[in-house]
Structure formats: structure tokens, C-alpha cells
Design brief:
- The protein is α/β, with parallel strands linked by helices.
- The chain has helices at 48-55, 77-82, 99-109, 114-127, 143-155, 173-188, 200-206, 224-228, 233-241; strands at residues 10-19, 22-32, 37-41, 63-68, 71-72, 84-87, 161-165, 192-196, 209-214, 217-223.
- The strands form 2 sheets. The chain has a 6-stranded mixed sheet with strand order 6-7-8-3-9-10, sandwiched between helices. The protein has a 4-stranded antiparallel sheet with strand order 2-1-4-5.
- A hairpin with a 2-residue loop joins β9 (209-214) and β10 (217-223).
- α3 (99-109) packs across α4.
- Bound molecules: adenosine-5'-triphosphate.
- Adenosine-5'-triphosphate binds at residues 19, 24, 42, 44-50.
- It comes from Nonomuraea spiralis.
- Pfam families: ABC_tran.
- It is a peripheral membrane protein.
């Protein structure tokens, strides 16, 4: 099975999710072109994680569609999920396994050949500097180590699209550099990446496309330079989202 050659890597159309009475994702339309490095930014609670969860088949939308290379994620999840690697927020994964065991488990679940799993797992553990923790259970991992093993699990089957929720959060600078190298190489090799981040500098450094989401709506989307509109991404973000630095003068008790 080959993904159709004309469809974007990811297309969200009218994606909507309501919790309680409030739509937290409100008719989101988004296109991630194939071969792009796509950044999704937005304030806390904007709906990034909820959108990405619906996009990859982890959370059922109330309305709208999510397509991966033209395949409807909710109508044909098996085909769609073969094409993606996902690093979800919060990362629920089997924790009473070591890193190598977790990758073996993931690879075999994906139907991979055991020797291929071993080979790729060893390479990923080494480049992500997790090989020294070969006997440590994932439950004992630090937050950054969990991100890294989650990323390794997402990469193992060589997907065509990576969907990553804050992949660099809590990751040390050396590992962050390794992750950036891996992701750039993945895109150079024809893969597509969409990731959420709060770090505008990282998005500017890595991405060729970006979307800004606020209160569940996409307020800007397209090639990075077009969205920036001559400003830094941070300035543009603040102007789009309408943020103001809050008054903190009342916290007098913080002064000694
Ligand atoms: N399961 C849930 N039940 C009720 N409300 C939820 C649920 N999941 C998310 N929300 C709400 O939906 C809104 C969007 O949350 P979401 O996690 O998608 O935002 P986000 O943009 O990823 O935020 P952050 O940048 O802080 O991670 C928030 O107001 C959140 O409280």
C-alpha cells in the first residue's frame, strides 16, 4: 500500500470537539503538505493536543475529518496508522518494561521482523543516549527520557508522517540536538513532521510551515515567512493571540 501521491500528509477539515458546553476545537481546517516540517503553536489550552489526538485516531471528533495521505483516520484507522508515528502528550505506554523491551514490544505489535526491530532499536537507543539505561524500567525514567523513548517508538517502523506533541519539552540540550538531527534527516528523506511547541525559536529554526491556534480556531497557517509577515514568530504570535503581559505588581509578599 502506497499513500496517494497528491494528497497532503495530513488534512484536517472542520474538526470539532466539545467538552461540556464549550468547543475546545472549533471547525479546525489544516493542511500539512507532504515533505513539510510543520509547527503548531498556540497558548496553553488552545486545543493543540486535542486537535492532534483527533488527527491521529486517539480521540474521536464530534465533527469533521482527519486524513493522512488521503486516508480517513476514523473510517480506515488500520491503513492510516501504518503511515504515522505518534508521540502523544502525557505518553501512556507500558511502563514496567525496559527501553529495549518497550521497543521490541512496539515493533512486534507493528508486525515488524524481529531482527529488524533489534537493529533499529539499538541504533535509536544509541543516538538518543538511552543505551546506558538498558536495564532501567520506563516507569523510572525522567520526563525527558520518556519523551526520547516515546520518540524512538514513534520512529521504529519508519513512518511517512510523524505527529509529535511537544517532542523537545524537558529534553536536555544534547538530546534535543540529536532529536533535531533525526527529524531533519527524516524530512530530508521525504518524511513529513508536524509537532506542537511553545518554543518559538525552535519552530523558527526547524519549520517551513506553521499554524497558530487560539481558542480552538486556526488564526494563521501557511509557510513560515507568510505567517511571520515580517515579524519574529514570537511578535506575530503575540499580535495574533492578543496576549498581554499580566500585571504582577500585587505579589508584594514575594519581595523580601
Ligand atoms: N478530557 C477533557 N475533558 C475536559 N476538558 C478537556 C479535556 N481535554 C482537554 N480539555 C480542555 O480543552 C482545552 C484544550 O486543551 P488542549 O490540551 O488541547 O490544549 P493545548 O493547546 O494542548 O494546551 P497546552 O499548550 O497547555 O498543552 C483546555 O481548556 C482543556 O482544559
Amino acid at each position: 500500500m502506497r499513500p496517494s501521491s497528491t494528497n497532503p500528509a495530513l488534512r484536517l477539515a472542520g474538526l470539532t470537539k466539545t467538552f461540556g458546553r464549550r468547543p475546545v476545537v472549533d471547525r479546525v481546517d489544516l493542511e500539512v503538505p507532504r515533505g513539510s516540517f510543520f509547527g503548531l503553536v498556540g497558548p496553553n489550552g488552545a486545543g493543540k493536543t486535542t486537535s492532534l489526538s483527533m488527527a491521529v485516531g486517539l480521540l474521536r471528533p464530534d465533527e469533521g475529518r482527519a486524513e493522512i495521505f488521503g486516508i480517513d483516520v476514523w473510517a480506515d484507522p488500520t491503513r492510516a496508522k501504518q503511515l504515522i508515528g505518534v508521540l502523544p502528550d502525557g505518553l501512556s505506554m507500558p511502563e514496567r518494561l525496559t527501553g529495549p523491551e518497550l521497543l521490541r514490544f512496539t515493533g512486534l505489535l507493528r508486525g515488524m521482523e524481529p531482527r529488524q526491530v533489534e537493529r533499529r532499536a539499538a541504533e535509536l537507543l544509541e543516538i538518543l543516549e538511552l543505551d546506558g539505561a538498558g536495564r532501567t524500567l520506563v516507569i523510572e525514567y525522567s520526563t525527558g527520557m520518556r519523551k526520547k523513548i516515546g520518540l524512538a517508538a514513534a520512529l521504529l517502523h519508519a513512518p511517512r508522517l510523524l505527529v509529535l506533541d511537544e517532542p523537545l519539552e524537558a529534553v536536555d540540550p544534547v538530546s534535543a540536538a540529536a532529536i533535531k538531527v533525526i527529524l531533519r534527516r527524516f524530512v530530508r528523506g521525504g518524511g513529513s513532521v508536524v509537532f506542537s511547541s511553545h518554543v518559538m525559536a525552535v519552530v523558527e529554526q526547524l519549520c517551513d510551515h506553521v499554524a497558530v491556534i487560539a481558542s480552538g480556531r486556526v488564526v494563521a497557517s501557511g509557510p513560515l515567512a507568510a505567517v511571520q509577515a515580517g515579524l519574529s514568530l514570537e511578535e506575530r504570535f503575540v499580535s495574533l493571540v492578543g496576549g498581554q503581559i499580566p500585571e504582577v505588581g500585587e505579589l508584594a509578599w514575594l519581595s523580601s
